[in-house]
Every structure is written in C-alpha cells, then in structure tokens.
Amino acid sequence: MFALDEDEASSYLDMENEDLIVSDLLNKYKISISTQNSFIYNINDDYNSLTNYIGELYINEEEIPSDIQKQIEHNVHYRNFLISNLEKRMDRILCDKSTIIFKEIVTIVNILSFGKDYKIFESYDFYNLEQMAQLFRDYEKKLIDLKQTNTDNFLITFKHYTTLIEVLNELCAINSIDVLRKKTINPIIELLTETINIVKFNITLNDKQINILNNILGKLLFYYSHIPYINTKNKSAQYLISEFSFNVAKLSDGFTLSKNTNFANDSKSEHEYYKIYLNSLTTSISNLIYKLEDFYDEDDYLDISNFISILDVYKEMVVHKETKQFTSIKELKIDLLDNYVYVYKENENISNCMEIVTNFLENKEFDSSNMQILLYIILFSEELNEDKLIKILSILLTLTKFENDYHEFHKLQLIDNIIKKLVTKKDERVTELLNIKLVEYIEVNKIASHLMSIYSKIYLSLSMFNSSLKDKNSIELTKYYYYKYLSINGKELLENEYENINKIILINIAKNALEEMNIDLKISEKDKLLEIGSNLITKYAEEFEILTKYNINQKLSNIVTDIFTNEGLDNDTLNSHIESFISKDIFHGLVFVSIDGLCERRCRLTDLGYVKVHIPLIDGYTLKMAYSSVYKHIFTDLYENNKDYIKQNLINLLVCYLKSTPLYFDSVTKLQSSEKLKKDLLEYKEGEIVFLEICLENLNEFNTKYTYEKGNDIFKAFSNSVNTIVPTYRLQGPRIGLIVIKDNNYEEIIKSIKNIKIKYENKMIDLKLAFAVSYGDKSNIILKSEHAMTLALKKKEKFNIFK
Q1: By CB neighbour count within 10 A (0-12 exposed, 13-18 middle, 19+ buried), where does 9 fall?
Q2: Burial class (CB in 10 A: 0-12, 13-18, 19+), 325
C-alpha cells in the first residue's frame, strides 16, 4: 500500500473551519469522543470518533445524515485522516489475532463509499458484485471530474480509490482460506482489473499513480493465481500439469509486473514481496506434486521432463539460491521445502524444515504465517515422525480460539492435516487427542461460526481416521463423525473437493460391516462397496435422529425438574440449558441462541454476516437465533421441521419457570425484581459497588392521562429499553436500577438512557427522568441509593451522586 505524507503539526490545535464543522457534528449527534492523548487536545480524536460513529451507522443499517455525507466527500482534512486511519486498520486485519475480520472489512468498505449504502455484502460468502462495480463506476466518474476541476481533491480521492482496492485485495486473502469462498476470488479480481484499466484508459495519470495501479495488478496475480481449487476428475496427469503450469506463469508475470514498478515504492521491501511470491510459487508446485502422488500412477508423471515448462520458470525466478538441474521429482520436492526455510525467517539460525518444527515446539509462536509454513511442512515433508505430530497437535489444542478467523482457520487447517498424517496410527495418545480433546474443542468453538466449513471438515477427517481402525467403537465413531459432517455441509463437497476422502470412508464402513457379518470379502468392486457404505450411513442417520429426539425430550424433562428442585436456577442458567439443546442438538451448532428476557450475559454477536430470526414466545420473552448466512439452506430445512416443536416446548418451560420463581420477576415490566437484586448482592464479591437508579417522574401523569394499564405499558417499554443497555432491576414505584460494572462508565449509560425514545399511540412520549449514582458495598448500597434518589428529585438538574 501507499504511504501518506502527513504534517504532524496540523494534528494539534489546528482549528480551521473544516475541523470546527466536525466538532459541531459531534455535538449535534451527541457522539462521545474517544480520546487518544490524555494531555493535549488532538483534532484526530474528533475525526476518529466521527469515523467510529459512521461505522456504527452502517452496521446498524441506519442512514448516514447528509451533513456527515458532505464531510466524507469534501472535508480535505478529514479525508486525509481517513487514509492513514484506514491503512492502520487494514494492517491489523491479517496481523492482529483479535480483529473480527469480516466486520472490519465491511466497515472499511462502507466508510469508503461516500456515505452511501451500496449493500455490497449480502452475506459472509455472497457479495453483490453489481453494486461493487457500481461503487467503482462512481469512483471512476469522480476521478475523471476532479482531474479537470480540483487537483487536491483528485489526489485524495485517488488515494481513497486505491485504499478501497487494497481492502478488497485483503478480502481475497481472507476468502482464500475457505473452500467455498475461494470461488469469490476470481470475480473480485476481474472486477478490480476492470476498474484499474478503465482509470488508466480514461485519466491522464503521472508515473507514480500508474505504478501504484500496475503494482496492484501484479499483486493480484502473484498473491492469488495459485489459490483456485483445481480438481483432478477426468483429467490426465499431463493435463493437470499444464493447468498448474499456466498458474505458475501467471504468478511470475504478476511478480515481474510489480517489480517493474519498484512495487510502487511501497513500505514493504522488494525482499518481502519476493518472499510472498516465493511462497506462492513453492506452494503451487508442491500442490501439483501432492495431487499427482495422491491420484495418479507414478508412470503417468514421474519423468521430470513432464515439468520442463514449470522448471524453466522456477529456475528463472528463484534468485535467493542457485537452482540445480533436477533429475527426479524427489529432488524437486526437497528443493521446494528448502524454500519454506527461507520464507520462514532467514535471519535466524535455521537450516532445514525440521528445525522450523523444533523452533515451533520450543517457542510456541503462533501467527497465520508461521502456522501456514508449518502446515506445508506437515503436508509435503516425509520426515516428520509421529511423536512430533502429536506434540504439535497437543499444543494447538491448548490454545484458546482466535477471534480473527484468518488465524483460527490456519490453526484448524493445521489440525486437519495432522489428522491425515496420523491415519492408521493406533497409538492411544492419538485416539484420545482426536476423539476427546479435539472434539471438545470443536463443540465449544464451532457455535454459529463463519468457519463452520473447516470445523465440519475436521469431522470428516476424524471419520476417515477412525474408519481405518477395526474395533467396534471406532466404526461407530466413523459413522457418527460422518453424520455430523453431512448434517452441516450436505453432499456437494463430498462429490467434488472431498471425493477421495469420502470414498475411503464409505469403502471402509462397507468392508468392516461385511467382515463383522462374516460375509466373504470377495466383493472388490468399488461401486458396490460405495453403495453398501452409503446405505449403512443412511440407516445410521435415521436411527440417530430418532435417538436425538428422545434425548432432547429427556433434556426438556430434566430442565423442568431442575426448575422445581434447584433453588440456584437463574435466568442465565436456564438460558444456557435452552441454548444447549436448540443449538447443539437440533441445529448441530449452526446457530447462536438466546432468550430475550432471560439472557443477561454474552447475549450479542460481535461480528457481521449473520441472519437473525426472532420467535415471540410469551409476553416479555423472545427466542433469538442467529446463524452464519453461509448455511441458510441447511438452517431453513432444520427450522421448518422443528419450529413448532421448539416454540411450544419453550413456552412450557418459561411458564414453569415463572411460576416457580415469582419473587424474582416484576409482574409489570418482566424485569428482575428488587428481591432478585438483594439475592445478587448477597453473592457479590466484597468491594465497592456503583449503583445507578432511574426514576420515571411523570409515571403518575401517564396513569392519569392514559389509564393505569396504559401507563404501565409505557413504563414497561422504557424499562425494557434500559434493560437492553445494561441488565436492570425493578425497584419501588416508578424506579429502576442497575449495577454499573467497571467496563461501563455511568455517564455513558445515562447518556444512552436519555436517548431512549418511546412512542405510544403514534405520539412521542416526553420522559421526565431523575438519576442517582451511589457508591457503597453490598450491605448498604440499596439504602444509599434510596437516599441519593430522594436528593436527586429535589434538585433542579434531577441528578445526585452519593459517595
């Protein structure tokens, strides 16, 4: 990417007209300022706050106000700030393990969309390419117009334009990790190539700008030409070699194009770009050899002369070492593995791939780049022994899930390839790691994940692993894991990308069944064995679904028993029980589940790309489900078959629960009651408590004006709106209260509450509120809060703090 030249002095106290406008917008829309400098005012804090606000509006699908749109399009200072701000955010997408990548990419693209909503991201894996193209058409038009009328604005818009291309470039990198999303890469690259050519053809650019665009075109080739999946079905070995040879040529053409621009004077050095190219080239050729060894007879490809066109490019482009004359495929494989040593860390004292593995085991450094290289070593090397594979797997399973899908994927793919290497190993350490610890990891972390495809792929690999073993338990696990995969992903990939592994599993299932029945094993026709294996899986699935329904009914019965016998049962515990049987048992982990009215903790998804379903249950309680849009077709089938069953059983559970704990819920608002507050305070750890009490002063006016029942409806609507901000308790009369946790500043909570709008009978309700903040401990906080509110109601500002 390009570097932005900034005059740092302009960051401080440069209150020109454009900066004042931004400050006024913050006040107008009550946008809180996220301060980055504690000792001096910095206009960048205002810009950053406005940017975060714009991002939130997009995420919440709210319209960007016209005066803010105007700043996005015309405020030179702010637009310059955006370039550096978005560059930093883009750098974190692939590097920061905690970045929620899809949400971040969507946010950046939207911020670069002139304040308009192009609705490009229809789901996690489906993008509206027509709208994406329209965004570029609008950029092209602006660039053409500004080139003639406003040079300064043209330069900034050009940088916004190239930033947009770069973030879509990163989207391609993210999509390269998923077998389905890989299919989006070529259409996006074609669109990016088209817009770059349009700009180059229609606008007179200087050499620097042309180099920037040519460098991007080159990167699109040498970053991604090796990514698309190439199947082997109905292809000769020579045809496959020709396909890979074409991709190798594209990789090299792209690198040469970028190199000729001096990589547009990017901050990355030529050496860093060379390592990226070398990694792509090495991986492409290694994948070719891997496929040839896996799917073809040696006689079809073993002659090294079959690789002559690939080797010519290889010898020309690999410059960090002297390439020799290869006489065999084995020599080429060794040389390719040596490239990974160079890519890994050439400044360390590492001389071969096994030392990379040792370094990994000793230092346990985990990021997407070193896990990717470790993956290639495991996949392509023949030297790794079983003990080291087990050690690597053990380490991976001790790691918590990375929030960044890019990093988490590489960890999961590494695990998947270790399973392949361990197939046929009967070591008890292996079976325990795979069938217990790995399965536990998947079950905990796969819930509503965008990475469900790789989680479920691991189930398929576990099925293959167990199918090679002969004991009865392993055969049952083979069918169970296969069924788990099938329930989530269906058959499409099994008949294409995973065809080989699918055949191995079905044939092993068939052979074991025949052997168990003492049937003569002369059946050797693959088609017949595949048919037998497929039939056995179908029968297993039918029986398993009957058993699952029985187990769900048993769980429901146990929950009812728990409600009436367990005094410690609370909202979150019941919500957790419900989430477990709906998400895991009915939807195979595809959905995130919570009950509005019950769930008080961890009830919101932080990422985008989810479809949300709301099912009203009883007054004050709603079932909320969210699933990755990638799996809409599977969710829809399961939902249609189970929605009536789910709804009726949840209503029954809630009725039982509410009848069993009447003291803990307020009958009007459905909030937790003051009795529940007292109970929660008893369980509270020692230490200072901050309590915020809110009084709806004009509730009696509503009771008089609208009737008592309608007044309660207004109070309930207001109280439940507060409850969506922070879990809230109903106190006496028109009062509610909440415990302010350290992460929540009470000023921010009060500000959010003041922004609540209640509409009743088509009229906006004027809410007269009083606020009291009290500091105390669990023994005195309720009394202090009552006293604080009494004082607050007497004050003109209707606010009091009592410490």
Answers
A1: exposed
A2: exposed
Its pTM stands at: 0.74
Percent with pLDDT over 90 in the chain: 37
Tokens of 217: 């075109």
Taking the C-alpha atoms of residue 430 and residue 426, their distance in angstroms, rounded to an integer, is 7
Tell me how far apart the alpha carbons of residues 359 and 363 are, in angstroms, rounded to a whole number: 6
From the list 412, 341, 346, 344, the residue with the least C-alpha distance to 383 is: 341
282: pLDDT strictly greater than 70: yes
Looking at residue 749, its amino acid is: I
Asked if residues 744 and 726 have their Cβ atoms less than 8 Å apart, the reply is yes
**Whole-number Å distance between alpha carbons of 545 and 586:** 9
Q: How many CA atoms lie less than 13 Å away from 308 in the CB half-sphere?
A: 3
Query: Which position has the token pair 């589940």?
Result: 593
Contacts of 767 (CB under 8 A, 6+ apart): 696, 698, 718, 756, 758
How many of the other CB atoms lie within 10 Å of CB of 268? 12
The half-sphere exposure of 477 on its side-chain side, counting CA atoms within 13 A, is 21
Q: Please name the residues in contact with 717: beta carbons below 8 A apart, sequence gap of 6 or more.
A: 758, 760
Alpha-carbon distance of 126 to 110, in angstroms, equals: 16
Beta partners for 802? 774
Q: DSSP H helical segments within 624-666, as ranges? A: 632-660
Specify the length of the chain in residues. 803
3-class SS string, 671-710: CECHHHHHHHHHCCCCCCEEEEEEEECCHHHHHHHHCHHH
Which residue spans within 34-189 are E strands per DSSP?
none
Q: Is the Cβ–Cβ distance between 651 and 617 less than 8 Å? A: yes
13 contact partners, CB below 8 Å, separation of at least 6 = 41, 43
According to the model, what pLDDT value does residue 770 have?
A: 94
The phi, psi pair for 635, rounded to 5°, reads -60, -45
- Residues 519-549: tens digit of each pLDDT: 765 656 778 888 999 999 999 999 988 888 8
Q: How far apart are CA 144 and CA 140, in angstroms?
A: 6
Give the pLDDT confidence of 137-171 residue by residue, as tens digits.
999 999 999 998 988 899 999 999 999 999 998 88
